[in-house]
Each structure stands twice: as C-alpha cells, then as structure tokens.
C-alpha cells in the first residue's frame, strides 16, 4: 500500500470518525471526569462492588442483534471489545486489531489482529472467531448489511482477516467503532450457540469484565476478568474509549430501578454510586448536592414524522402550516423539562462535522398568523389531524403540547396515546395516523437516518428527496457528501420528511468519591472506575 | 331476610293487590323512617354523604369554580408552588392543578359511578339467570371463576392494551373486572331468596318466571347489591388511579385524579402539591363513599336494628 | 375429606381452561409483536418477520394455543423474549420476592388487624371502636402506592431508616432482606389490615352477640377467656377466609408496589412482560396465580374444618 494513499485514507477515516458519537453537552463534558487510576495511589484498595442504578432493562445483551442503548452502555467495551474503537477525537483506532489498512479504492479492508488476546473462556482470539463474529454482526445489523452488500469477512491467516466490498467501505471502520449495534468480538463457538430465537446463549468477550449474572428485573453483574490482556500503557489516561483499562473494581453491578424518583433518592441515600437517566426534575437538586457530580449530554434527536402516504399530512401545505405554527421550546419542555436543546440541525451536537444550518429559517417559527394564512389559502376545511404518540419517556406530553398549539390555528387534533410496542405496530399502518412522534439515538453519519428510507413508516417517497439522499451516500469524498447533506437538510426543512424540534439530553449523576468514570459518548463507562477505600 | 323483603317492598309494590301488602307497605314505611333517623344519627354516614355531595357539587360546577382551563398549558410556569393565582400550584406542563383536580373529579367520579352501576346491573342479570338454570349456572359461574382467577390489575392492563387508551375503555375494563364478584353475589342472594316459602307459593300459583325474578327476587336482593355497588364505585376510583400509575389509565391530556397523581409521583421531591391535593381528594371521596356504603348497609340490614 | 379434596381438585380444571383461553385470546389481540421489541428500533420489517416465523407467531391461533398447552404438559412453558430465559426459571426467580413480600405484609396486616378488630368489637360504640373504624376506613381509602410514596419519603429519604428501594435476597442475610421489604410490606399490608380489622370486628360482634356467649357470661366465665377462647375461636373461620383471600390478592395485586419499590416480583414481571409483549411469561404467570387462587381457597375450606368442628362433619 502506498503511503500517500494510506494517508488520504486515514484522513478520510478521521473525518468520518469525527462525525461519530462524541459526547457533547450543555455542561461541556467532553473529557473524562474523575482523575482516573493514574492519580490514585499505587496499590490502593478499591471497594469491591460498584453499584450503578439504571432505569431500563435490555431485551437482550446480544449486541449484534439489538440496538438497545442500555445493553450497549453495560456491555460494550467492558464485556466485549471491537476491532477498532473511538478515541476522544472520534477517530477509529485499533483495539483488538493491531492495525488496519485499506486498498486504494477503499473496497478491501484488512485487519491484523493482536496476538495473545484471551477470551473469557480461556481460549485465544483467532481469525476464525473474528470472522464469525463480524459476519454475525453484519447479518444482525441492517445498516451494516446495507453498507457491505454481499461482502463478508474472510480469514487470511490466523491473525489476519479482510473484507472485499463491491463498493468503497471507507465508512465501515467508523461504523465498527461506534455504531448503535456494536461489532463485538466473541468466539466462533459462541456465535453458533444460539437460543431458539436466534440470540446468543453465552456472553463471552475479551474485555476487562466478564459477564457474571443477569437477574431479570433486578441486576446485571459483571466481574473482573483476571486473564484480561490490556491495550496501551498502564497509568495513562483513557483517550475516548481507547487506551488502558485497569479494572480496579472487582464487580460492576447494574441495578435496575425503574422509577426515577426512587433512583435519585437511592443515589442521595448512598445506596447507589452512580445513577443513569436521572429525571430532569431531580437534576437541579442532585447538582446542588455537595456529595454528587452531575453530567448531562446530548443523546439523540426527536422526530415528528408525518404520514406522507395518505391523509391530510400528505399535503405539503399542511405540513408547512404545522411546522410554521410549532413552538418547539414549549413542546420539548412539556416532555423533557429542561433536559433538551433546541437546534435545527438534523445531526446531533456529537457530530460537529455534519452539523448543518441549512433550512434553519423554517425552524421553530411559532408564527400562528402565517400558519393560519397557509391553511386558508389552501382551502383547509378543518379535517381532523391524528397524532400517534407513545407513553414511553413522556413523549405523550409532546403530543399534548402540539395539540394545544395546533388547535389555536383551527386544526382539530386527535391524540392516539399507546404504549411503545403498540406504536411500533400502528406506525406501519398509514390509515392509523397523520403524524407520529419518536426519537432517534445519535448516528455517526446522516446516511443512517432511517426516515429517509422511502419504505420507512412516514413514507417520504419524494423524488427530489430520494435523489439528494442517493447523491449524498454515494459521494466520492466526505466534503462533497457534506455539501449534499447541507442541500438535503435545507430541502428537508421545506419538504418535511420529519419535523425535528430539537435534541434530548441524557442526565447522569454519581458520588464524588467515585474516580475514573469515562464519560465520552452514550453514557459513562466504568472500566477504570472505582472507589478508593480509605 | 324477611325483614329485607319488608323494607324493600315499599319501593317496589306499586300495584298493591291485597290488604296484606298494604299493611306490609305501611310497616315498611315506618321501618324505613326509623332507619333513616338512625342513618342521620350516625355521624360517620352523614359525613360520608356530605363529602360525596360536596365533591359532586365541585365536579358539576367546576367551570364556575375554577378560573383556569384544566388543559391550558404554559410550560414556562411549570411546577410553580401555591399562589393566589394557582391555589394548588401548577403541574409539570404549567397547568393549573386546582382546575385539573376539579375537572379530574368529573372523570374519576364518572368512571367510578359508571363502573359501579353497570357492573352491578350486569352482575345482577347474570347472577339472576344463573340461579334459574343449572346449565347456564355452570357455564356462567365457570367463566366468572376464570375471570376472577386472573389478577384484576393484569386483566385491566391487558384489556387496555387491546382496546386502546380511552376513558370509555378504562370503564369497560373495570366493569369486566368487577362483574364476576357482582354476579356471584347476585346469584348467591337469589338462591337464598328462591328457597323462601312465598316464592315457592308464587311458583305454585303459576306466576311466570320472569315476573318472579324481576318483581320478587330482585327487590329482595337489591340492597346488598346497592351496598356492594357503592364499594365498587369507591374501589374503581382507586383502581383507575393504580392503572394510571402503571400507565394504563385515563389517557392524557384529560385530567383524572389517577393521572395527576402519576405525573406528580415523578416530581414528588419538587412538587408535593401535585401529590397532596389530588391525593387528599381521592382519599376523602373514597372514604366518603365507604362511609356512605356502610350507612346504607345499616339502613337496609334488619340485623343492625 | 378425601373425596372432598379430589372434588375440589377436579374443579380446578374448568377454571384453568377458561383462564388459559381468555388470557391467550386477549394477548393475541394486543397490537405489537414480541419480535419487534426484541430486535429493537433499527431492525427491518424483514428481520422482524423472520423472527416471528421462528417464534411460530405466524401459525393459526388455534394451533398456537394447542402447541402452548401441549408443551406445558411436557413441562415446557416456552422461552421468554427477555434474555431468552426459560419461562419456568424466570417465573420461579420472580415468585420468591413476591412470596416474601406477601407473607410479610400478611403478618403485618394480621398482627395489626386482628387484635384491633377484637378490641373494637369488645368495646363497641366507644372511642376505641370509632378510632379503629376510622383507621380501617383510612386504610381502605388510601391508594397503596400513595401510601408507599409517603412512607418512602419519610422513612427512607428523610430518616434513612430503610433503603429507598431495591430488593435484597434472603441468601444475603435475613435482616437486610427484611429491611428491604419493610416499607413495601407496610404499604401493601395497610389496606388489607383495614379490611381485616373490619371483618374481625364484625365477625366478633356476631359471635359475641350469640346465645352461647351470653350463656358463658351468665355463668361467670372471665371476659378474657370469653374473648380469646370462645369468641376468637368461633370467628376464626371468617378470619382464615379473609387471610386466604388477602394472600391471593397480594400475590396478584402487588404490581404497583413492586414497581414503586423496584422489587423484582411477579407483579413487576407481569407489567414489564406486557410492555415487551412477552406472551409466554404473562400466560404462565396468570395460570400460576389462578392455580394459587384455587388452591388457597381449597386450603381455606380445609382449615374451616380444623377451626370449626361443625364444618368437619360435612
């Protein structure tokens, strides 16, 4: 491989990776907090168990097949590691791979594996394991499958694997490092050992913690893996998700506390060391508590998705009128209290490369008169407008706020409030709603924005929109892709495949005596976290 | 049981056929007056009645009493404490809690009342007909046993998931949950009354079954049913609150005490007023209904004389 | 007696049949698919359809019903969609906290309610009686979750007497276990205590008013002996029934309290399972509770015989 080409390729990867899920937040928590193990006295003893309160339970810990955030927060990087991971500059850097290279055309990627890495079952990581894991990941993750097509990983020798694509795969390393369904490496045997629904039975990884126990509705327990082969140099700070994992705490226990009020109270009472997803209404109180550290970070964006296939919202003027009338601040505050940030960019703050101002003049206009005029000019006859919304995370409160705003311009709104599982069913049926409300966790690249798919519920099957989207995804360079993305987002604020009212925050809190929490993206990580026993 | 027959007779025998029933009517009238006196002397029952009437009045005249629209939101004013403007503070969407509690009374009372009434009536019909026919009895009672054996919270939540979130569906779910008990009660009471000699006599005299059932058995089993209905009324208010708590009650934005409490629970550390006021209203109303139910039972039960 | 037991056991079958049909049909009518919740938001319709086929959800309903029933007879209750755990082991692990909680609540309720009910009956019409009546009415009128919240706020957050939430298994020590269950047990037991108080009072009144007690009094038997030996013994039938019914109700009705205090019991499993459309788990729990229900009722009937010799004859 010529070094010039490689440089260009690495630059591309870097740029792509910059777009990845870096955490940003109102409180500016880009860097890891706590001083890490480096500052802890040598040979300090750490408390045996760290209790981490979480409010949700994962449907499965099989990260290949499930996009559950909580499963990722618990297991990604602790139990399982990936070929590459993200550093603090959002670059894809080696973790289980020693290095990786791409051919000039970007169609073939070759990963050289680190030697001597041990799985939790004691076996050594070999190319067969990596091939089986990576291919299982591709099968289970629709976005990866779309990117690589029929291409799959193959073994070159015991410590080398490669993948041959029909098109350029330059975005694949970024996806491996930071996708919502992590490309976890497990053993070839574990990949084959599935339950009757096709999910992993054994959770075997290479990470500093091995899976110990999952008590449904109670806790997930991870235990330090003594055979862990660390990457990097002992005593150095973590860089994003990459670097030396010391695992000072023997047991990480993720306790399920479904009720947020209970969770905050438990944190204050010292029952938990860390709390995930604390409620915004408790956040101020926790922040003012001298024993606690609090952090909030942007986790994703909110979407109101109109039904473009049939009904009143399939008419452009109507969508425009709704968007013109909306007061996004009011709508978001109803559901999130203060745990949100306004912004017209479809991409989240964690992806500064892709952040776009295009179309912002159409965002958050709160112009009731103009909206009314649009309706009357187009002969709107008071057809009812049905909003489908779920009770998950109080999203129904957004529906209520929208209803009260739209009724001011004479649109009779009917709310259909259902639970989340019902919403996922109803949204497939165009006769059931005119607009539904959902949220999307942050994605590394705009090509992963599902709602641009013509078949995605909402059905934005608009010719110009689809053309722009294709032009963006097949752009030869990232700069050109970004230019197309600006154009696409600008047009999106006119056509309105979704109305994006803003971004929601995740709020975390922990005891001041907990050191070494790695706060980078998607929530805190605990591989260097612990409480020094005095 | 004969005594019960007497007291109820006053209301039902509209066409008195003979002297005996006229006499009975007089006697019953007297007895009723005695009991009414007793009822008014029972301070607890009167208190219960007063509370229930007060809450009903507040609910009916809610638009006149509450200055604010219970649905009007202003999120900039969210979770503000008690003030002259907002007597009960504001909720997490900046709505007036006082207005929501009053309008919520309408919904909670309507849910409770309808559930009590309809499940009582349907239970009565099912129980009555079960008592007349062995086959029907077997089938109906097995179905009732089955429904009763399913945890009521689960049954109601599942039905809400099937029917969709709507006040109407909350009512339907709670009715279904309450029918088996009502039917069981009606059936057992009807079986007892059926054994009475005068019913036997009427049968021998050739009265139609329909007439025996509705003109003679029903009046005699009505009083325990009415007492039970009061308790169902009260418990439906609680169950609705519990369903709301689990996310399957009256859907937003309509206020019910249950869903105000649920929203309040999430902010209990910052906004105690969202728990306290609807909580007190719920507790007092249910207390009032129970006291009233007790009073009515004493009123109708000859044993307590 | 044996004949009676056999007869009662046989009567369980039609009840369980009705229960299984009702819950199966209802669940099939609920919109939303377990496959979709299992795979998450990024899954394609194609992936979901494939998993549904694997789970057998595309077969005719009647066939699905009989497959489920048939498998149960072979001891196979299906696989939960949550974590792929077999339903039997999942239900088993969730039943323990609920039983602990229900027993504890029952003990609290009985210890408070029975003496107070007796006291009220003995002192009918006095201030004690009115006090008990008011207390029991307050108990019935206060929704348990509201009471639980107040308890939590006062005793856990402010006074730090108890943990706010969470469940400690008995294997990690008896006292921590009891401590973790105290607040929820009080919240859950209070309403049942209220009901029990009422019923104990009325049952005692009935017995105290009966001729043989009057006779005993006339004979000069001491008051204490009358209350404990005669009256209590004869009201036991009512009290046992009540405890039995409360037990069933607690097993089934603890859902709200369990989710408030994060106790991983049957109630919470039930509610969570509806959210994730975990059909097999819900069906298994419902059947289990129905069975409990019937068996406890049967046990109550048998205990009647022990407490009241008159019943034994039949």
From TrEMBL, chain B:
UniProt subcellular location: Cell membrane
Organism domain of life: Bacteria
Domain ABC transmembrane type-1: 105-293
Coiled-coil regions listed in the entry: none
GO CC terms, sorted: plasma membrane
InterPro entries reported for this sequence: BP-dependent_transpt_permease, MetI-like, MetI-like_sf, OppC_N
PROSITE patterns cross-referenced by the UniProt entry: ABC_TM1
Organism classification: Bacteria, Bacillati, Bacillota, Clostridia, Eubacteriales
Membrane topology per record: Multi-pass membrane protein
Protein name listed in UniProt: ABC transporter permease
Keywords, sorted A to Z: Cell membrane, Membrane, Transmembrane, Transmembrane helix, Transport
Major location (coarse): membrane
Organism: Faecalispora sporosphaeroides
Family: Belongs to the binding-protein-dependent transport system permease family.
